[in-house]
């Protein structure tokens, strides 16, 4: 009993010290939260181009391109209040290490327990004037890594490409698969909406203070693109570029992310 009491006392002291060490929250205090995306394929690190992986259907594949938009980030406080961070859009590109750590600017100082974000670009921004879509949303800025359908007037929310032995040989002589997912809905129910919202509990209370700017380390298990909700076989459709056909892929990649730890 004495040992138990001692451990409880020590734990209480450390807890009190931890709480007291945080600076008071000022009414206008803000700071940034960094999202650190670490993409993997199951337990393996994701390496573009040459590394071969196997999906749940036993199909081999490589990944030559992996890009996705993140937007509409929000954080839930310990009291249940949700803080939305609008008009901040990020394009995560596996080929660009700097893009793997988007910074959410000016988050109000508080203690947070949950986060939410959208995979894709919402309909309001998608149909806004071109001069209001700057930075990663600039429709003319993507070069060979195009993330915008000029023919379909919409953003590609998620792009994954690679080589698989079960894919048919294309005109260039490559056994290539291509998943290009877009479609933000529209004025009719028949228009495909492949925007997906992801809500994740934080493993510990995440404090933002005027002098404290945390980093949330997220794991993106890209193997779940093939298995997040239902099995997806490359052999049954190696090229998907129609929003109407991309729903199953969007449903799967909505299950890709987990929060690993907080820096």
Automatic annotation (TrEMBL):
Transmembrane segments: none annotated. It comes from the Bacteria. Residues 1-18 form the signal peptide. The keyword NADP does not apply. Keywords: Signal. Pfam families: MbnP. Residues 31-241 form the Copper-binding protein MbnP-like domain. InterPro entries: MbnP-like_dom. This is MbnP family protein. It comes from Aquirufa novilacunae.
